[in-house]
Design goal:
This protein is α/β, with parallel strands linked by helices and 247 residues long. The chain has one domain: Metallo-dependent phosphatases (Purple Acid Phosphatase, chain A, domain 2, 4-Layer Sandwich), CATH 3.60.21. It contains eight helices and twelve strands. It has a six-stranded mixed sheet with strand order 3-2-1-11-12-9. It starts with a strand and ends with a helix. Bound molecules: zinc ion. The site of zinc ion has 7 residues, from loops. Zinc ion binds next to loops.
Length: 247
């Protein structure tokens, strides 16, 4: 079984198309979506259409999915995120709003091989950023691999060794393959639509549950087209600029 793992698409249609086109070369059996489908980007309806068409095997909601559909207030968001949420609430069709509203809270157990969540397995809105966070998260997971998103930074951490997390090695690298035969992994595939690790390329993951490998991938996409749509929609300029910087 091969899973395509997508996180934090954030209404960036150009990035999502580039990822799907690239991932189709290797192919997948099922899709896992780690939340934050909407928010920040200028294509919430088209992106929700695409994600729905993928008929994900498992999907969880992100904080932007909750706030963008009015499930929660945007009070904790920074000004540009809040402006994007107000725009998104207005732009998203009632039908898509209803669908996003109905997304389940994580964690969701996919099968005996993996669990998915948006922020952390103990709190869907928590950020996993350091050893303490990882150790706490690992104590809440029984599956060999737990995929998470929310930070927009690709990272892989193995609990048994208490080792430092494996981060994306740099902009010259396209693919990283991890051997996950020994369980105890927490893996963030990175963000499709708004990477924040200094590499502006879209990020995604492929999990081969039979071979027990996770492949982390970076793909260039038409950043300029996504930026132009953000500007045309009169969303905050910062949201366009950060796509080119990758943070
Ligand atoms: Zn996000």
């Amino acid at each position: 079984m091969r899973y395509l793992v997508l996180s934090d698409v954030h209404a960036n249609l150009e990035a999502l198309h580039a990822v799907l086109t690239h991932a189709r070369i290797a192919g997948w059996d099922h899709v896992l979506v780690l939340g934050d489908i909407i928010g920040y980007g200028a294509d919430p309806n088209a992106v929700v259409d695409e994600i729905r068409a993928l008929s994900a095997r498992a999907i969880v909601r992100g904080n932007h999915d909750k706030v963008g559909t009015g499930l929660e207030p945007a009070s904790g968001f920074n000004p540009s995120a809040r402006a994007a949420i107000a725009w998104t609430q207005h732009a998203l069709t009632p039908e898509h709003t209803q669908w996003v509203c109905g997304l389940p809270m994580g964690p969701v157990t996919v099968d005996e091989a993996c669990t998915i969540c948006h922020g952390a397995p103990f709190d869907e809105d928590a950020y996993l950023e350091d050893q303490r966070d990882y150790r706490r998260a690992a104590s809440h997971v029984t599956a060999p691999v737990c995929f998470f998103g929310h930070t927009h930074v690709p990272v892989a951490w193995h609990s048994a060794e208490g080792q430092t997390p494996l981060r994306w090695p740099g902009s010259g690298i396209d693919v990283q393959v991890l051997d996950v035969r020994r369980g105890g992994w927490l893996i963030n595939p990175g963000s499709v639509g708004q990477p924040r690790d200094g590499d502006p390329r879209a990020a995604y993951g492929l999990f081969d549950a039979a071979a027990r490998t996770v492949t982390l991938v970076r793909v260039p996409y038409d950043v300029q087209a996504a930026q132009e749509k953000i500007r045309e929609a009169r969303l905050p300029e910062r949201l366009a600029l950060r796509l080119a910087l990758g943070h």
